[in-house]
Amino acid sequence: MRAPRWTPAELLAVMGSRELGDDTSVFAGVGVPLLAAVLAQQRHAPRLTLVIEGGIIGPRIAPGRLPISTNEMRAAHRATMLPSITDTFLFAQRGFLDCGFIGGAQIDRYGNLNTSVIGGEYRRPKVRLPGSGGANDIISLCKEVVVLTVHEKRRFVERVDFVTSPGYLEGGESRRKSGLLFGRLTRVVTTLGIFGFDPDGKRMRLEALHPEVTKDAVVAETGFEILMPERIETTEPPTAEELRCLRAIDPERRFLGPLA
Amino acid sequence: MRAPRWTPAELLAVMGSRELGDDTSVFAGVGVPLLAAVLAQQRHAPRLTLVIEGGIIGPRIAPGRLPISTNEMRAAHRATMLPSITDTFLFAQRGFLDCGFIGGAQIDRYGNLNTSVIGGEYRRPKVRLPGSGGANDIISLCKEVVVLTVHEKRRFVERVDFVTSPGYLEGGESRRKSGLLFGRLTRVVTTLGIFGFDPDGKRMRLEALHPEVTKDAVVAETGFEILMPERIETTEPPTAEELRCLRAIDPERRFLGPLA
Amino acid sequence: MPGAAAPYDFREARRRLEAKAKSSGEKLTSIEDAVARVKDGDLVAAGGCLFSRTPMALVREILRQRRQRLTLARNLMCTEGELMMVAGAVDKVVTAWMSIGLPWGVSKIMREYVESGRVPLEEWSHLALGLRFRAAAMGVPFLPTLTMLGSDLIPVGGTKTLECPYTGETLALVPALFPDVAILHVHRADRFGNCQIDGYPHMDADIARAAATVLVTAEEIIPGDEVRRRPDRTSIPGFVVDALVHVPYGSFPHECYGLYEADFDHFGEYAAAIDAAGSRAVAGYLDRYVYGPATYGDYLDRFGRERLRRQAKYARELTR
Amino acid sequence: MPGAAAPYDFREARRRLEAKAKSSGEKLTSIEDAVARVKDGDLVAAGGCLFSRTPMALVREILRQRRQRLTLARNLMCTEGELMMVAGAVDKVVTAWMSIGLPWGVSKIMREYVESGRVPLEEWSHLALGLRFRAAAMGVPFLPTLTMLGSDLIPVGGTKTLECPYTGETLALVPALFPDVAILHVHRADRFGNCQIDGYPHMDADIARAAATVLVTAEEIIPGDEVRRRPDRTSIPGFVVDALVHVPYGSFPHECYGLYEADFDHFGEYAAAIDAAGSRAVAGYLDRYVYGPATYGDYLDRFGRERLRRQAKYARELTR
Predict the structure, then answer these.
(1) In terms of CATH, what superfamily is A8-249?
(2) Angle formed by the axes of helices C79-86 and C56-64, to 10°?
(3) pTM (2 decimals)?
């Protein structure tokens, strides 16, 4: 077996970057989501505005000085505005933020995310995770949301133990009926492929496989039944130029992971 | 008849200034209320904080450069903070503003103020006045409110045509019952005397007469029955030092009026 | 027909924002092009307060383009409101207070137009109107408050009250106000629309977020790098702004904090002319200051450059 | 017993503020005197966010004075929360997220204390917690929002929903959170407590207005005249502040925008020690950094002045 030409994180960042259009705003978490946004900005979306939840608008992340949090000078490097955290999220509630980029610990067939508790009772959980942070707000309030995540069976579960951040809840109209008028989860970009949701039932659906990934690999790494439409695309592999650009942003490979 | 030693505006400003304690905050409108607050600051309340509704905290008004509005550089002279207008009023709603100083066009026995319409129907009034400005907010939200006004029969009416700024509404518990939990109108300082409100019925009550003013003069200039307790104080006349200080603040006599 | 939605309809307001490009690209244009975005019948909110940071150049261009049936919303209204009334541009005003300033008494123009029923005046308390813009800026249909309760402002504004589900107390819920267009004047901006304001911020930041379309004039256009050196001075981000115009003295004869004081002598002459001739004086004023001068520079020349320099000196004295 | 009121009780919160002096006088004092105002059982809200502008000197002094049964509320919690847990100072935390930072995974200390039930973690979305402080800052019992709806955060937090009387839509009403004490670290203040913050303001301004008692440390104490020259830089007015202490590097090893970067090497060593020895490592850390050094200067010496200079250099590079 030959060495892969890109790491899983590189694949996610490149595929994620392609979801972003020019003349839009993106609310991005740190790590791979931020890399994806910076890549898009450098490649095809020069008038993209990055928004970071610590209260940062329009930063130009310095290559090699990547932030590890949403609240630090590396994240705010050469920003155009630094509103309060609350005001930053309120831009999303008002409708100014086109796309939200988030990760996730557990995700289920309706795109619900859990970053709170796994196992046990809520107040005495088996594993207590860090919590929502801004993920709930982003998925509730941004116009469109893309989840970027490693595709593993322990993450893709039948039903999340706790809905920290609402995808389509019970599917169908249940999200809208809960009062969530705005925003929707449009894509789940994983290390295996790209997923959407069927318009009626809002169940997760395979839309495209990454190069050299099979449907069986998806089924094997997914803890629920994924809808498989007749026609499934194959994504364009990361180009040499995309990879070159991406690697220049994270030369220390802090988030891109070790090349084999 | 000898010439009065002070003008009506001077009397109001001096009497008003005495209502303010040190280590407090005062929300003051321009004109006589502002003069009263500045006088208090210079005389007995050096740690008083002036708050002006245009979004101004802690200004040091320059003598001879008195503002004519709550939204100008003269009002903001050497301020310590300039919050947004909304945030300025929210300091009052939260409970940070101890005393509000306002004027009034029409006032009734329960201290209700009208600066909106006189006569006719609301939408086709005989006289359209400028409106609430911040007066409604100040009387609704400051801990204590003092009205400073010339005492004339056309101002002191049986019932205001329109309640722009609520005093005690219909008296009794009606203010509290309307939802106004905070604040209260404590004093009405006029050119004739100082008035309060009886604790139960909340009707206006004479508390003190200015020097050389008679009860009959009050009755003659008031369009409703004023409560007259057994014991009525006489105010200390403005001192030479108070007048000297006050006149130095407004040397052009822009608000103090012409000396006879 | 977006403009026909109820002012508190946060769903429609959100849809309009979602449909608009949120670009960090070029925003600099001419005043004519900027104001072409204002449509007859629009609800226009003006920034600043009374005679401070009034977007006078934008008001002037709206009148020159003969817009009609506008609703003008502004917390405290001054001469700009009178000009719009007499020019026939407004069908309604939404405000907490309207006149020129304390020394000139109650506005005679406001009285003439409102008492006759020609231009209804929708009245709110100062905080309530601020909260209406803030609710809109936050993307919610109302904000709770304790102001206005018990007063006659509650019924005339149609403000609903609520028994608080947490405390059982009565709260006023002031409805959001989503303008079609915001017109604002700021101290400086880069060409991408990132705006910085000195001194009192008034309600401009909320109004910008509340509106579907945002037009800004700036005293100074600065390089983007300068904004990035002091990002904590930015109060309106570029992606909120639709059009930006470079207009020095863009509030004159009103003030701009630190740069020029309001021209009180001019107000006095203006008020005296109204005392003598009523709204006919304002019609003459419109010819002389609005319709006549072809450019904003010509407009400023009517005041005289000496006057501008004097007012700038006063401002420096008061703020240094 | 004020502390016993429900966190959204705006009436009690208002009464406490009305009873307090709103002075523009002297606020400068010692850290010991400032922290003496914190009582056992208090709800303490800390400013900054994660490892940015954490009021570390105040946290350290609270631990030195052995306060107990505190509730700590902070939007994103970091090492200061772990220290308070292991020191036995907190009975509960209120937050949107708790760990040290992405590279060090899920906080082992948080897991140990929360999973065992020793310290309940009350969880809100980041915006919801921000709105709780803002509601309190505004003096109202709740604010309406569309966030958290549909998620399990609504039932576990006891958040009530409302059918909007204007639009009929469902809104979440997040309840106000009125802290007994706010602890904040800012860039500069004058001795009267007028505070200025550079860079991202986080939630500090709201927290200051929300709390009954406000304790502030500042990197620099500047003359009052300097505040009056740039009043538009002030975000917390003096009459809100109860006690002010001059503490350079008052957030270290966390960051202060423009002045010093967080010491990530130190975080790495701290996290590695926990990996090796669990909460015993934190107990040792408390002895070495909190209980041991008699003064804040001695505390900083444990990091080494060279380290402080290095982090200051990094900050200048990132913000100039």
Answers:
(1) Glutaconate Coenzyme A-transferase (3.40.1080.10)
(2) 0
(3) 0.98
